[in-house]
Amino acid sequence: MPVYKAPLRDMKFLLSDVFDYPTxxxxxxxxxxxxxxxxxxxxxxxxxxxxxVLSPLYQSGDEEGCKxxxxxxxxxxxxxxxxxxxxxxxxxxxxxxxxxGGQGLPASMGxxxxxxxxxxxxxxxxxxxxxxxxxxxxxxxxxxxxxxxxLVPLTEGRWGGTMCLTEPQCGTDLGQVKTRAEPQGDGSYxxxxxxxxISSGEHDLTENIVHIVLARLPDAPKGTKGxxxxxxxxxxxxxxxxxxxRNGVSCGSLEKKMGIKASATCLMNFDGATGYLIGPENQGLxxxxxxxxxxxxxxxxxxxxxxxxxxxxxxxxxxERRSMRALSGKKEPDxxxxxxxxxxxxxxxxLTQKAIAEGGRAxxxxxxxxxxxxxxxxxxxxxxxxxxxxxxxxxxxxxxxxFLTELGCEAANLGMQVFGGHGYIRxxxxxxxxxxxxxxxxxxxxxGIQALDLLGRKVLLMTQGGAxxxxxxxxxxxxxxxxxxxxxxxxxxxxxxLTAQWNVLTxxxxxxxxxxxxxxSAAAYDFLMYSGYVSMAYMWLRQSAVAVDKLDxxxxxxxSFYQTKLNTAEFYYERLLPRAQTHATxxxxxxxxxxxxxAENMAFTG
Length: 606
Description:
The chain is α+β, with helices and mostly antiparallel strands. It has 19 helices and eleven strands. The strands form three sheets. Strands 3, 4, 5, 6, 7, 10 and 11 form a seven-stranded mixed β-sheet that branches. Strands 1-2 form a two-stranded antiparallel ribbon.
C-alpha cells in the first residue's frame, strides 16, 4: 500500500527562507513561543503522526466507509483510536487561545498541521477541521458565557463542531433558508428544519457535537438579511463541563458519495432543537462568513494535498515501472525497458503535479501570514486593523479555493495517467485520490461561486479594481528587483507583463459590464483562473529568487534542492503559465456566444 511522506524539506524552505516566518512570528503576540526550534519540533512530530497513524487509514477508511445504525454514525475501524491520539497530542488546540486550554500559537501553525493531515487522510481531517471553524466563529462572535461553555471542550477535542447551512431547496443561495428559530422567552430558541450535506454532522469520535446553524426568526426580513446564527449542541452542556440530556437534533441519513467516504456527510433534522443566538439578530450570514472563509482556506488545502500525495505516489511508480525505450536512447541498457521517468511526456505530468503542489503550498503559506495578522487584530480588539487584513485575505481566499482545487483535480487525474490502467483500480490508491479531490471544487462554494465572489464582489463592487491594483503593485515591485539577474530576468519580465495585463483586463471587464450585466458571470471563471496562474507565478519567482541566492551563497539545503526549485519554476513559466493567455482571451469574449441559444434549443432530444 502506498504511504505518505510529509514534505518537511519544502515546508521548512518556505517558512524559513521564502517567507521568513521566524521574523514574522517575532512580531506577533501569539508568536512568542513559535521559535524556530519549537516550530521545527511541531512540524516533525505532526509529520510523524500523519505518516504513521493517519496515512495507513486512508484506503481502509474508504473501503469501509461510515455506517448509520439507530441514528448513530459509526466511523471506520481505527478512526476512534487515531482521534484519541490526535486529542492526546494536543493538536486541536495548537492555535487556540491559552485561556480556553489551547497552546496559543499563531493561526498559521494550524494551517501547516492541517495541510499534512489533509494530505495524509482528508476524510479524517474533516472531523477536527470542521471543529476549528466552529471554534473561530464562537471566539469572534459568541458571548463570554458561550465561549466558556463551548470553547474549552472544543479546544480539548472532547467535543466536535459543524456548520449547518445548506437545505434541500438551496445551496449557495442562502436567502432561501427555511429553518425556523422560535424564541422561548428564556434566551433560548427552538429550531425546526432540515439541513443537508453536513460534514461531521454525526459521528462517534467525540462525546458531543456543536452545530453552528443558520435559521430565521419569526417576522425576519426575506432573503439573506433575515438570517440569524445559532449554536445547537447535540447534547445540552452540563454544569460540570460534561454533557446532559439529548437535544432535538438527529442524523436522518448518510449521503452516498463519490469520495471522502470515511467522512460522515449527513442529513440533519432539527425537531424543536434548543439553540442559542450567536451574534446579532438577522446578521447570521455576516457572522457565518467567519466560518465560511475559514472553511474555504481549509478547502484550498484539498488542492495542494492531493497534488502532493498523487505526485509522491506517481513519482515512485514512474521510477520503478518500465515501458519501452526513451526516444533519446537507452537509459537503462541492462534492463528490459527504461523506467517511465525517462519519457518526456511522463516528466510533463510529474512536473505539472510538482509545480502545482509546491506552487500551491507557497500560495497558502503567503496567505497564512495575512491570516495571522487578521486573527491577531481581532484578538486585540483592533477593528480597523482586522478589517484591513480581512480585506487582503478576502481577495486571496476565492483564488486559493477556486484555482487550487481545480488544479488539484488536474494533478490527481495526472497521477492516474502516470499509472495507466493500474491507476484505475483501487489497489494503488490513485483513483481514490481523484474521487476524494473532486468534492473540493464543489463544497464551500463551487468554482463559479468563488469566481463571482472574486470578480463581482471583491474586485468590481467593493474595490472598483483596487484589490487587483494593490496586489499587482506588490508583485511588480518584487519582479523589478530581480531584472538584473540573468537567471531570474525572463521570469521577472514575464511577471511584470502579466501584472500590467491583469489591471487592463480588470478595467476592460468593468467597462463591458456597464453595458452587459452578463459579462461579469461570463468572465468570472476565466478571471479567477488567470488570477491564480499569475499569483502562482509570483510564488515561483519568490522561490526562485531564494534558490538563486542560496546557490550563490550557500544554504541549509543541498545544491540540488535549490537547482531543482529553479528548474521547476522554469517549467511552470514555460509550460503552465501560458494558459493564462487563453483565459485572458476568453474572459473578453462577448457574452453573445453564451447566451444566444434559447433554453428549449439546448438539446435535440425526442
